[in-house]
């Protein structure tokens, strides 16, 4: 899998566009949630918020893939589930390595995996 550049500061930009408004709006929130953990590594609420918005987004995206009978759903869902298993174990104080992992995972997941469904889902 290609490894993509992590934005610094950690803010969504147009290179992450899927052109599904719901997905792009979710992704903006995910970037913000990870950046909040970066800025407040001792905050249980920032970690909880990050886990919550990730789970909600994955659920939304999986429903959209399912509604479109997208063939890559099972493999894609595995990646979501694996990431959730990892971040659900994160405790404060969050280590720099864990924050870097989350930042890199999201950037690469969007560009290597989410981008595969571009043009194939139903919602605009
Ligand atoms: Fe947008 Fe597959 O996460």
TrEMBL record:
Single GO term (MF): iron ion binding
InterPro entries the record matches: Haemerythrin, Haemerythrin_Fe_BS, Hemerythrin, Hemerythrin-like, Hemerythrin-like_sf, Hemerythrin_metal-bd
Record carries keyword Iron: yes
Keywords on record: Iron, Metal-binding
UniProt keyword annotation of Metal-binding present: yes
Database matches in SUPFAM superfamilies: Hemerythrin-like
Domain Hemerythrin-like intervals: 19-120
Record-linked PANTHER family: BACTERIOHEMERYTHRIN (PTHR37164)
Family in the record: Belongs to the hemerythrin family.
Name of this protein: Hemerythrin
């Amino acid at each position: 899998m290609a490894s993509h550049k992590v934005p610094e500061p950690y803010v969504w930009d147009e290179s992450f566009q899927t052109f599904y408004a719901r997905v792009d709006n979710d992704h903006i929130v995910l970037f913000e949630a990870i950046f909040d953990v970066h800025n407040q590594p001792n905050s249980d609420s920032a970690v909880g918020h990050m886990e919550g918005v990730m789970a909600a987004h994955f659920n939304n995206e999986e429903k959209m893939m399912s509604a479109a009978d997208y063939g890559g759903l099972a493999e894609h869902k595995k990646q979501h589930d694996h990431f959730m298993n990892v971040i659900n174990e994160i405790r404060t104080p969050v280590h720099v390595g864990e924050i870097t992992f989350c930042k890199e995972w999201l950037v690469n997941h969007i560009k290597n995996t989410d981008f595969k469904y571009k043009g194939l889902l139903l919602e605009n």
